[in-house]
Amino acid sequence: MFAKIKDVLAGKYPDGTEVRLGGWVVKSRSSGKIVFTVLRDSTGEIQVTTKKGNVCDDALKAADALTLECSVVIDGKVRTDPRAPGGREIVATGLKLIGASPDYPIFGEGHNPEVLLDLRHLHIRSKELVAVMKVKDAVLSACREWFRGHGFYEVTPPIIMSSSCEGGSTLFELKYFEEKAYLSQSAQLYLESLIFGLENVYSITPSFRAEKSRTTRHLAEYWHIEGEMAWTGLYEMIDMLEQLVSFVCNKAAEQCAAEIRLLGGDPDYFLNLKPPFPRITYDEAVKILQADGFEFRWGDDFGTHEERQISMHYDKPLFITEYPLEVKAFYMKDAGNDKVLNVDMIAPKGFGEIIGGSERETDLRLLEERLRKQGEDPAKYGWYLDLRRYGSVPHSGFGMGAERLVRWICNLEHIRDTIPYPRTISRFNP
RNA sequence: GCCGCCAUAACUCAGUUGGUAGAGUGGCUGGCUGUUAACCAGCAUGUCACAGGUUCGAGUCCUGUUGGCGGCGCCA
Fold it and tell me: Per-residue confidence at A381, pLDDT binned at 50, 70, 90?
């Protein structure tokens, strides 16, 4: 019923075509007998000109009185005009105010993050946040498309769980009838159980971390893209991951080039991103750091500065494999030499870790031993350890942060702008 | 959890050695028939975050509190 602004701007309607648009006022200025209104819908922005003589006096008056973000239905004729931003405009023949918007609190560019976050329910209409949400939509649907095309089943693991996957200090606790329960921070253990029926599975779910993080890459609630594959070793999984990441980046850049550009990103880079991605081991990464003058002791995990420094040597995402066993989780497969078969994918330019994964340990005794070493009671992992008792197979899995991927693609300073309502240490409202 | 910074109009900020609270933006009123952050004229708007203290007098100095932001750690 409504024409879409994007279609009008693209020339789908010849000059003189009568169209009806529904949208919101981005700005409006009046020169007495002519009113210029910039109208927004979900597809774009277009200038509407309302002139005395073309419309009845009431409609001209209504156009003159439009304020920021009021909603209107406009009838008019398409016209090509070089004076209009975008090259085409609507010459109004009728205008109806649907929802008034007195004193809209967001205007211009000069607002502090605090104000915008308090007004998030309104700010999510902004051109920038809308662009990010479109990129995220492209990313999530490309993920599903890739998985479906490669023999994966989408599964729906639980969000409420009785205990954690790696340590208990970072879990949100909740009341579960008469007992304590926790919000999931990873679907991994459940995904591992699902490979025995489906072999290749993935899930896209919220994950929750109660860590009191104050950084530009952490959220307390984020969307976790996780996969688990039977009969798959670490290096086969890495082959797969670079395919997945390339496909998703290509698709997002193809569908959302204008949005990425608006946000200051480079769609051409993501359109042309292709495997293979560079791969180095932890040992090699340590040598890079030492050559760059970092005082870094073998055996420590990389911090933000180390990660950034290493990634500066590459212009593609970088896989770093085989970290020291001591700094990594109990379920990662022992590679011998005090290392595990794990992988981190680090985005270039300091965007940091986007994927963490590993081949999983299948040796029941080793698992129990590692759990005890980390101060955990193996009895609490009863059902998980059962998976090693009944028809265990080699398998690998990974977790990818949807918001981290979107942040990298959109070149955003802060991860909070990759999610409509960011939950952080100091904010869960609106 | 550790370290740092900030708080004055709806928004962004200025406010001198402590002496009557200011500007721009946005809003409202009027003018203008092609604006591109339109322009011109006028109008309205304050618990100076909160609580104490010093002082004849505190937006300004001191103490505490609260809220928020940034960096590190933790990770995706």
Answer: confident
CATH topology of domain A5-99: OB fold (Dihydrolipoamide Acetyltransferase, E2P) (2.40.50)
Spanning CA of A119 to C1' of B26, the rounded length in angstroms is 16
Strand, helix or coil for residue A258: helix
Equal fold, A5-99 vs A120-418: no
pLDDT tens column, A31-76: 888 999 999 999 999 999 999 888 888 888 889 889 999 999 999 9
C-alpha angle A337/A342/A347, rounded to 5°? 130
Residues 403-422 of chain A in contact with strand B via CB under 7 angstroms? 403-404, 414-415
Asked if the interface predicted TM-score (ipTM) of this complex is over 0.85, the answer is yes
- Across all strands, nucleotide nearest A115 (CA–C1'): B11
- Residue numbers 357-386 of A with CB closer than 7 A to any atom of strand B: none
Domain A120-418 has CATH 3.90.550.10: no
- CA A158 → C1' B16, Å? 63
Widest pairwise Cα distance in chain A? 86
CA A215 to C1' B1 (Å) is 14
For the segment A281-337, what is each residue's pLDDT rounded down to a tens digit?
999 999 999 999 888 888 889 999 999 999 999 999 999 999 999 888 899 999 988
Sign of CA dihedral A405, A330, A322, A308: positive
Kindly list the domain boundaries of chain A, sorted by start residue.
5-99, 120-418
Residue scoring higher pLDDT (A112 or A248): A248
CA angle centred on A338, ends A337 and A343, rounded to 5°: 100
Least confident stretch, A108-122, A223-237, A305-319: A108-122
Sheet of A342-347: strand order equals A153-154, A200-208, A221-230, A395-401, A352-359, A342-347, A318-321, A279-281
